[in-house]
Amino acid sequence: MCGIAGYTGERNAPKILFDMLKKLEYRGYDSAGVACFYEGKTIVSRGKGKVDEVRKRSKINDLDSKIGIAHTRWATHGEPSDENSHPHSDCTKQFTVCHNGIVENYKELREELTARGHKFLSQTDTEVIPHLIEEIYTGNFETAFVSAVKKLRGSFALVAIDSCSPDEILVARKESPLIIGIGIGENFIASDTPAVLSETKKVIILEDLEYGIIKKNSVSIKRLDTGLPLEKAVQDIKWDVKAAEKEGFDHYMLKEIFEEPAAVKNALKGLDDIKAAAKKLSKYGRIYIVACGTASYAGLVGKYVFERFGICAETVIASEFRYSTVNTTDKKCAVIAVSQSGETADTLASVKEAKNRGAYIVSVVNAVGSSLTRLADDNIYAYSGPEIAVASTKAYVGQATTLTLLALSEARELGKITEAYQNEILDDLHRMPDKINMVLNEREHIKKLALQLRDCKSFFYLGRRLNYPTALEGALKLKEISYVHAEAYPGGELKHGPLALLEKGVPVICVAPNDDLKEKMESNMQEARARKATIIRVAEDGELKVPVCDPILSPILYVVPLHLFAYYLSTGKGIDPDKPRNLAKSVTVE
Ligand code: M6R
User: Which are the contacts of 478, defined by CB distance < 8 A and separation ≥ 6?
Assistant: First the structure.
């Protein structure tokens, strides 16, 4: 949902800012722009297109500027266009702003400012911000910035510059992430840590309702409401720079699928935290698992594993939970919030609401230091490493592994399984990375199959129980990066409607582990075969082959060929799977 960058130091700002935008492009890529100070003026260069396209045609590259701000956009208000690209300036061009989030009261602000003579050039909500600063300004940038920010309703991460204060960048945050990378004689501002990792591993994380004055040799953070200065901790980010780069793979997505074996290994590192959380969870009568998109499918895997052990758990999509299910939460209930980024707006809102009602909150999260980690009572990190591709893959495997371990630990805690059984599953989980590697070694075969089916207009995915989420995840991945219609159903639902859509040649991908429901799944496949659909089984002897594993772990393994299948179908269609149209990595707006 838009990436923001800022730089102040002794090096060439346009170069650093465009480089940072490249690393933030997963947050949005419909337009981009940079603003830098040069010879007493703010020079803005922006336009529709991906970062590289905008960079190529930008004259700002030639400027010897040492300070500036930048933005890569995922459109909310106003279509992707040159005019709607950030940065935005006021009438006098003194104040320039980049923004991530939504200014909910922008219409009324715009009307008021228009009545006072301000001229707007874009359809964005953001443009009201520089005009507000202009309206309020009486000679002090910080005072005007803070007063303007206080008038905004909604969510924001902001960077702003004033051509009369050319040695500083002002920043502010409410509900949209912003970090400050601390260098020596230089400082960086970004929406997310991967953007600064190549320059520094020391970061300050801005919290809600904080603002900052960033200069090349100083960072000062204050509270927006009181203006009081804050002592902020500088955190050391442990991620390796390489972890956020492609390392010879054609796409981040492929690299991240190849990191799925490591995602299982790394999730196992969280076992102590998982056991501690399970101990607390065992005291709650009701468990909700709350998440969006792929994370919600990992949440569904969690639900089925809990249920397998006779423990009640409900997985609810966060955008629904926050407006309905939340009414049923209280201090007798626990919420497991699952999120890769830890910044998803609906997930955060659900957690805040449930917490207000007294619920115990535990996160299953990947991004260290994200907003979710600061809201939750306890955090379980998946330790999957930075995930850059918009389509979530290794994070899903990490989340499904973590939730399986959590359910297993709680079942043991409640005496529903023996220690011997728990150890048996743990042993099998330790062997899982090798099994995933065996699937990855089948990539040429999976690619061939994807290319054969590349022109099909519609796909169906079937799964039962634990692998119904696998089917959902396989279908979502295909939709997301191949723009092909795909639907997932529990096998038993087929005859209740969707069967009417099956005809000759329609691919039906059936996730069919070797478990007690195998025969039921076989019957569902027969129903589809009888309509001349093309059946592709994910099974030990399937067209998409997987090694033998305990059925309870099958969601972790069986999803891998589906991730590769979606990847190769996307690239086979000439689509860039890292940047699917209309989507962004972190959905930080409602
Ligand atoms: O960062 P989160 O895990 O909270 O993100 C949730 C969803 O937005 C995300 O999983 C989305 O569905 C992915 N693009 C799917 O690949």
Answer: 459, 484, 486, 565, 566, 569
- Distance in Å, CA 585 to ligand 1 centroid: 7
- The protein residue whose alpha carbon is closest to atom 12 in ligand 1 is 293
Contact at 8 Å (CB) between 86 and 71? Answer: yes
294 touches ligand 1 (CB under 6 Å): yes
Q: Answer yes or no: do 390 and 458 share one domain.
A: no
- Length of the chain in residues, anyone? 590
CATH code, 323: 3.40.50.10490
Q: Which atom of ligand 1 is least distant from the CA of 291?
A: 4
Residue among 316, 341, 579 whose CB has most ligand 1 atoms within 8 A, to mutate: 341
What's the CA-to-centroid distance between 76 and ligand 1, angstroms? 18
Number of domains in the chain: 3
Question: Nearest residue CA, atom 7 of ligand 1?
Answer: 293
Q: Is residue 245 part of a domain?
A: no
The range of the structural domain enclosing residue 539 comes to 439-577
Final residue of a domain: which of 210, 237, 264? 237
CA 340 to ligand 1 centroid distance, Å: 7
Residues 208 and 294 both lie in one domain: no
Q: Cα of 26 to ligand 1 centre, how many Å?
A: 12
Who contacts 492 (Cβ-Cβ below 8 Å, separation ≥6)?
Answer: 464, 520, 524
Nearest CA to ligand 1 atom 16: 391
Q: Is residue 249 part of a domain?
A: no
User: Which atom of ligand 1 sits closest to the CA of residue 587?
Assistant: 8
Concatenated DSSP letters of 493-526: GGGGTGGGG--TT-EEEEE--SSTTHHHHHHHHH
Q: Which of 403, 430, 457 is the last residue of a domain?
A: 430
Distance between start and end Cα atoms, the chain:
10
Find the 118 Cα to ligand 1 centroid distance in Å: 39
Ligand 1 touching residue 384 (CB < 6 A)? no
The answer, yes or no, to whether any atom of ligand 1 lies below 6 A from the CB of 363, is no
Catalytic residues: 2, 585
| 230, 295: one domain | no
Are residues 209 and 89 located together in one domain of the fold? Answer: yes
- Same domain? For 397 and 276 the reply is yes
Instruction: Show the 3-state SS of 80-138.
Output: CCCCCCCCEECCCCCEEEEEEEEECCHHHHHHHHHHCCCCCCCCCCCCHHHHHHHHHCC
Tens place of pLDDT per residue across the chain (590 aa): 689 999 999 999 999 999 999 989 888 888 999 999 998 899 999 999 989 999 999 889 889 999 999 999 887 788 889 999 999 999 999 999 999 988 999 999 999 999 999 999 999 999 999 999 999 999 999 999 999 999 999 989 999 999 999 999 999 999 888 999 999 999 999 998 889 999 999 999 999 999 999 999 999 999 999 999 999 999 988 776 666 677 789 999 999 999 999 999 999 999 999 999 999 999 998 999 999 999 999 999 999 999 999 999 999 999 999 999 999 999 999 999 999 999 999 999 999 999 999 999 999 999 877 889 989 999 999 999 889 899 999 999 999 999 999 999 999 999 999 999 999 999 999 999 999 999 999 999 999 999 999 999 999 999 999 999 999 999 999 999 999 999 999 999 988 998 899 999 999 999 999 999 999 999 999 999 999 999 999 999 999 999 999 999 999 999 999 999 999 999 999 999 998 998 888 787 77
Q: Is 390 close to ligand 1, i.e. is its CB under 6 Å away? A: yes
